[in-house]
Amino acid sequence: MGNQMQVSGDWVEYSSYLASVLVFAAFFMKAIVPLRLVAMASNIAFVAYAAGAGILPILILHAALLPLNIIRISQHISLVRRVREASENEPDIAKLLPLMTRRKFTEGDIIFRQGEEADEMYYLCQGKVEFPEVGAVVSAGEIFGEIALFLQDNRRTASAVCAGPCEVFSLSEKKVQQLVVTDPSFGLFLSKLIAARLQQNNQSLLRQSMPVAVEN
């Protein structure tokens, strides 16, 4: 009987040491997943120690922290998976259409002018839109007007002119910012789109500034 009590006491004491070591190790973890895994292990060790020692507050605390750590590590893994998928695939714009406002334009209509303050991003459903200042054109299925939303002065870098009848969906700046924060795939998609658009605009301006050779 005495040996059993001694073994039980040793087991409780060892679990307390293990829990303390795991908590100490967690402070040295930089990566989220290993940190959460070590934290979960410490929760289990503390639950075992508190149950054996009859310390109810510690038992309740770590019994509550364990599922919380499980939820947080699941959320992190899901976020990493979504970001990885975003780097390989473009988001489904059709899912954004219910959040957007539908508008129709005729040929020659100006959707926005260069220098105007930007408060919306656009998705071109039908038609073509030209940007005369940079010599660029977007066709149906493309997003435009996103660059100015992320500039410090929020000013349009070029005018958007309808080259024919157009059907356009607009998304407010506030909703764009919300989507960037909540949906990493959308944020990464916009980052790639803005980088590609700036590169395209720079190349168009460079071509326009080059002297034209005249044949004699």
Automatic annotation (TrEMBL):
Keywords, alphabetical: Membrane, Transmembrane, Transmembrane helix
GO CC aspect terms: cytosol
Keyword Membrane: yes
PROSITE patterns xrefs: CNMP_BINDING_2 (PS00889), CNMP_BINDING_3 (PS50042)
Keyword Membrane: yes
CDD domains the UniProt entry points to: CAP_ED (cd00038)
One MF term in the entry's GO annotations: DNA-binding transcription factor activity
Record domain Cyclic nucleotide-binding: where: 89-180
Transmembrane segments: 14-33, 45-68
PANTHER family linked: CRP FAMILY TRANSCRIPTIONAL REGULATORY PROTEIN, DNA-BINDING TRANSCRIPTIONAL DUAL REGULATOR CRP
Identification of the protein by name: Cyclic nucleotide-binding domain-containing protein
